[in-house]
Amino acid sequence: MAGPAVARDRSSSRRANLGMVLRLLRDEGPRSRARISEDTGLPKATVSNLTAELLEGRLIREGEAERDRGTVGRPGQAVEIDGSGVHGIGAEINVDYVSLLALNLKGEVTAEQRIPFDVRAAGPDATLDTTAQLVAREIDALRRDGGRVAGVTLATPGATDLATGTVRFASNIGWRDVPAIAGLRERLGPGAPEMHLENDAKLGALAEYVTASAAGVRDLVFVTGQTGVGVGIIAGGQLLRGTRGHAGEVGHLQLVPSEQLCACGRRGCWETTIGRGALLRYAADPGDLVWDPMVDLERRLAELRERARAGDARTLEALRRIGDNLAPGLALLADILNPRLIVLGGHFAFFGEYLLDGVTARVRERVMAPDAGGCEIVLSGTGLTGTARGGALLALDAVYQDPTSAMTPDRH
Amino acid sequence: MAGPAVARDRSSSRRANLGMVLRLLRDEGPRSRARISEDTGLPKATVSNLTAELLEGRLIREGEAERDRGTVGRPGQAVEIDGSGVHGIGAEINVDYVSLLALNLKGEVTAEQRIPFDVRAAGPDATLDTTAQLVAREIDALRRDGGRVAGVTLATPGATDLATGTVRFASNIGWRDVPAIAGLRERLGPGAPEMHLENDAKLGALAEYVTASAAGVRDLVFVTGQTGVGVGIIAGGQLLRGTRGHAGEVGHLQLVPSEQLCACGRRGCWETTIGRGALLRYAADPGDLVWDPMVDLERRLAELRERARAGDARTLEALRRIGDNLAPGLALLADILNPRLIVLGGHFAFFGEYLLDGVTARVRERVMAPDAGGCEIVLSGTGLTGTARGGALLALDAVYQDPTSAMTPDRH
């Protein structure tokens, strides 16, 4: 029931056509101008002008002569996405780290970094200082190599306000009404790229959707496995944000009997029974290496996994409890959203070999639709970088929607 | 991250343009050809051809000369949607009635009927007989008046399979794997219009979205108030179906402590604490008039409302319990989906004066996002006809997407 697609002026239709060509090359691969004309229905002369513009803007480059593809292919000089020109950056602030990942327009990783950081203890100002340094260094490095940065997406847990760039309420890092984007802009100064704020789970979902959509999946739920737990929902191929961008706030649902105090001030929130805090509490006592926020998270999780593999009873029991507490919430999400995939991230993916079978069986038992509505539970392959990767993708998506946004020189 | 919009041939682009013009007239009202050309960006000659086709197909008609609108308006003969030519029919099978509603292309109600009917007791064959008779009579009546029927949407509760027209599992009417559309087709014979099956809650959501979208709402959840309870979700202006169309199956979630046996065979499902069965159980004993499935539902609900208005303690207590049990589920939906509106249908709307304030207060307390994420709870204005209305709208939407589908003569 969408309204008419209205192209009110020549320049907006040019932008739309540039975007259509660029997305075609991203989604379907390199091809000749003749083939682009066939695929898009645009006249050959128009395609020729559009590709010339994209070449000049260094968003695409001349590729190899296209080979015959089956019987319909025709030879011709192909064009392809140029990975060297434009980059998107995702930066993530989470409970015990600040991280960054950059992708070029082809989706290749061009930078990746994670710093152990006690965000709650440091407070917003010091955290934004560190984040800004990380981002500024990367922008400088990319620009030094002749690249342009299309945008930066900052990810935080909790309720975030896209329009104003404010973290409204993120209980696990103790932030309330922190104008994070304004803070970053101030620290990065003029000449900084476009910056946006988004919730960590939504960006994780976007990162998963790149792989999943290539396999035809249009509906998925990504579950973060952090200190807090949230979900990012892709429904019918679209990121579900909700009216104020707060969709996916499942961490504080009351799903499992528990009296555990939550960072939000209530008791028994779901994330206190499945989040990283629960895993650590179940598996080890304070003072254990795995509790130390200054040790890199991946190392701490690897330590726990070694214990599990060595058959340590307490670790295995901890993982069993996590799985038992996780299943009812996943079943509920499957009943409400009927996704094709539920993708488990963070520590759920890290310990997938101990969780997946049990959780899958219990979800299948509970979901009302026959055959669990066709829903499959899988492990994320993005490790701890999914959120930052989703942020970088979102920054690049602005280029794919309107390539002209990346065709003007950087303001530095 | 949508792919390119590709128009592969002239006839598909003609269909797309016919649809664009028709939707423009529906959404923005009557206007001259010159104005259509401005609004769509299509050349005037193209608009002239398109409107000629739509006129010939009786989807639009010549209207009045357009008046000046502000300073930019230009006089000219306006065209407008023709309500007389094409109709959509929605038919609903629910626990204790079979109903039908027809809309013309302008969205005006052209027929409405509800028959008290004990669907579970009658079984699928007898129920489909009655439904087919109701639909056949209406098709005949509309055709006798020179109208065409663009399509029929059949609504049932439970898990439905859009592609095959099969009711997979609808516990409250006792149907499992009933090929409902094939059954209707067989009964209506050749010459019957297009028929599709959809879940009642999704169609209710579509009906609500017509009003809500006019007020700028893009995200809403419609909650059916029937014997069973399901939700229909509109997210970012799109109906959320899920991978197999089973999204919104909330009736069997375990949200409120209860040992009540559910029609699905489990105990404590949410709908056993808020559905019409719960309301009747809380408010009256078996044998009471309000329990009688052969008395029209609206009359039974009206009887209960009179008791409430007269201050009957048991009725008021029943409504208080319904509200108490309803709130946690609505809060959960608000946390997950962050809708702008939650629209209460069926008996929730009927008894809204006793439910709304309490439920709203409790939802606001529970939802994690500040200010309940901007979510407002409202009562449906469509009474018991929302689902059938949504079905009729869906049938007509096919015409708005591809007007040529309704421009060939009926096959009778």
TrEMBL record, chains A, B:
Pfam families registered for this protein in UniProt? HTH_IclR, ROK
> One biological process GO term for this chain?
regulation of DNA-templated transcription
PANTHER family recorded:
BIFUNCTIONAL UDP-N-ACETYLGLUCOSAMINE 2-EPIMERASE_N-ACETYLMANNOSAMINE KINASE, ROK (REPRESSOR, ORF, KINASE) FAMILY
Q: Which family does it belong to?
A: Belongs to the ROK (NagC/XylR) family.
Q: Which InterPro entries match?
A: ATPase_NBD, ROK, Tscrpt_reg_IclR_N, WH-like_DNA-bd_sf, WH_DNA-bd_sf
Q: Where is the HTH iclR-type domain?
A: 20-61
**Molecular function, one GO term:** DNA binding
What's the protein name? HTH iclR-type domain-containing protein
